[in-house]
Write a structure and sequence with these properties.
337 residues, alpha+beta, 2 domains, 8-stranded antiparallel sheet, 4-stranded antiparallel sheet, 29% helix
Length: 337
């Protein structure tokens, strides 16, 4: 159609301008691209966050597990189960500590003697009395690194302790009397003091007994080479008469009689150990693997009705070993994930 001369034609809108208006709030096409990129970045960051947390945890996992393991070991050592290293041959061959062999590592169960007193036949670890002239334990290094390694070795029982801790077998307890020997050279025990009656002990666990010669007459003077005879000694209440299974090489109660007269008048205090100095009962040989076994009560004492709780203390020690294995298994499963 035509236009009047005085009319100015209205400018035509471009196809883009003439198209339907974009919905309010929608950014332009260029902005849409930028917006999409922003959302993708947020999603990528959210997706990477768990991965970064896992990476951080994987770096911290080993130190945290080590700290937890050490804390558990300290708690167990203090209150439940403590490992000990056998450095001497005084308990051969029940416990190896012989020159040139691998010294046994034993687990000592502590709570049992909070329930009951030690019984004859128990293998116990105790602090050496002050007047027993035992060699002191390992002296820790002044070097901080070496000191830490030695401390951890003592914690897990691969290094001898710094204290004067000894391991022996309980032979008689407070109120009982003990002497040696009968006509066959055996130890004798009485539940009613030095007046008897006496019963002889059959001790197949002895590795090498001390020297002994049968007196020519009953009650006669013992031979010069007789290092086995002593007593009778009545054990004071709350104390223990202890002896090593290697009787010829054990600084035990017989060794510490201190009477100077061939054992006829042993000092009942200097030769015995207070119950309060007992750390715990040895229940398991934990190392080396070839010698894994529990330490029960010999038939010599079970036949006399002197066993007490017997093998029960080995169960918590076994549970502790299972717990350590479970912790290692959990760590392996974490690595596979």
């Amino acid at each position: 159609m035509g236009y009047d001369a005085d009319e100015t034609p209205e400018p035509q809108r471009s196809t883009v301008a003439g198209s339907a208006p974009e919905p309010a709030g929608n950014p332009p096409a260029g902005g849409a691209v930028v917006g999409a990129g922003g959302r993708d970045g947020v999603a990528a960051g959210a997706a990477s966050s768990p991965d970064s947390r896992r990476r951080r945890w994987s770096k911290l996992e080993l130190p945290v597990l080590l700290v937890v393991a050490i804390a558990i070991a300290i708690v167990l050592k203090t209150f439940v189960v403590q490992p000990f290293y056998i450095p001497s041959q005084s308990m051969e061959q029940t416990l190896h500590g012989c020159p040139g062999c691998t010294g046994d590592r034993i687990l000592v169960f502590k709570p049992v003697f909070r329930i009951r007193d030690p019984h004859p036949g128990d293998v116990v670890v105790f602090r050496a009395p002050h007047d027993w002239d035992e060699l002191a334990g390992v002296q820790l290094s002044t070097n901080p690194v070496v000191h830490g390694v030695q401390w951890f070795g003592q914690l897990v029982g691969v290094v001898p302790p710094s204290e004067r801790d000894l391991v022996k077998r309980v032979i008689a307890t407070g109120g009982q009397a003990v002497r040696c020997c009968d006509e066959n050279g055996n130890l004798q025990i009485s539940d009613h003091g030095a007046q008897g009656p006496w019963r002889s002990l059959n001790e197949p666990y002895i590795y090498q007994n001390s020297s002994w010669s049968r007196p020519k007459t009953p009650g006669g003077v013992k031979a010069a080479d007789d290092t086995r005879s002593f007593g009778p000694v009545t054990v004071p209440a709350g104390r223990l008469w202890v002896m090593g299974d290697h009787r010829d090489d054990s600084a035990d109660s017989r060794y510490h009689c201190g009477d100077g007269s061939g054992g006829q008048s042993c000092d009942p205090i200097s030769s015995t150990v207070p119950n309060s100095d007992v750390i715990g009962k040895a229940v398991v040989i934990a190392w080396p693997p070839s010698r894994w076994r529990t330490l029960g009560t010999p038939k010599t004492f079970t036949s006399l009705g002197l066993t007490g709780i017997g093998a029960l203390p080995a169960e918590p020690a076994a549970a502790a070993l299972v717990g350590v294995g479970a912790l290692g298994g959990w760590r392996r499963r974490r690595r596979r994930r």
